[in-house]
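Methods — Computational structure assignment.
A single polypeptide chain was analysed. Its primary sequence is given first, followed by the predicted tertiary structure written as structure tokens.
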Amino acid sequence: MPPLNWTERRIHAHGVELHADANPMPSDTTSTKVVFSNPPVWDSDGFFNAAHPDRISIPQGLRGRYAARLTIRWYLGQQPFTIHDRDNGFFYTEIASNADPTGRFQDTRISVAPVVNSTKTVLQVLWDGPLAHGHFLEVNLQYDLPRPAGANIWFSLRWLGRQN
């Protein structure tokens, strides 16, 4: 039997796991919101709303602390990334939230260069913090390379419990 996903290990887990493909994604200096596939891989309480597939919303009654994990696999098909790609390009991603008490959008960001001689470069972003009903998370991607790249995106959000 294959190992269980980390969201399935808890009998009474609250959370969501989503997937998206961007192939190929435009290369430029503008950040693009990820639009997740419907239906979600797993959704305990309606975090994903097909009317807003570019965000993950916190359902009523699940105020508390959350942990998010974002994994992005950038690729050029079967072609490896080159030294030119590494020296002249970048991959960027962020998990953005509207949960800041001041009303500002807060986020967690990461930027890396392509891995030379590899057919893929993988980014992982971790985020945790308090969220309540009405708050949402979005994932934004961006890259700049001399040739088009694609991305496989996996996002999971898990409720860790109530926060005082």
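Note: Residues 1-11 have pLDDT under 50 and may be disordered.
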